[in-house]
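Put briefly, the fold is written as integer tokens. The lines below illustrate.
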Amino acid sequence: MFYEIRTYRLKNGTIPQYLKVVEEEGIEIQKSHLGRLVGYFFSEIGTINEIVHIWAFTSLDDREARRQRLLADPRWQAFLPKIRDLIEVAENKIMKPASFSPRGEAH
């Protein structure tokens, strides 16, 4: 299992706007292609104006195929401009759990 951890630093004060449009439109498009959403978070303490969402994939090939399908979806292409200008910095990590991690067991 591989976990994609996407972290976005948003423009100051735009977390409510971002979360609203993702909840109303974006998340269902993403889930229809990306599969297993582990969590979607926003910061309140520490680094502010931050969004983190985590997706689980069976392999890196699985991730690549799913992301390609998402990018090809016209609904996603229409949705992207609604969040693109709210994001100042984007970071992406691919993490693999340790064998003793609660989410590290084979699925």
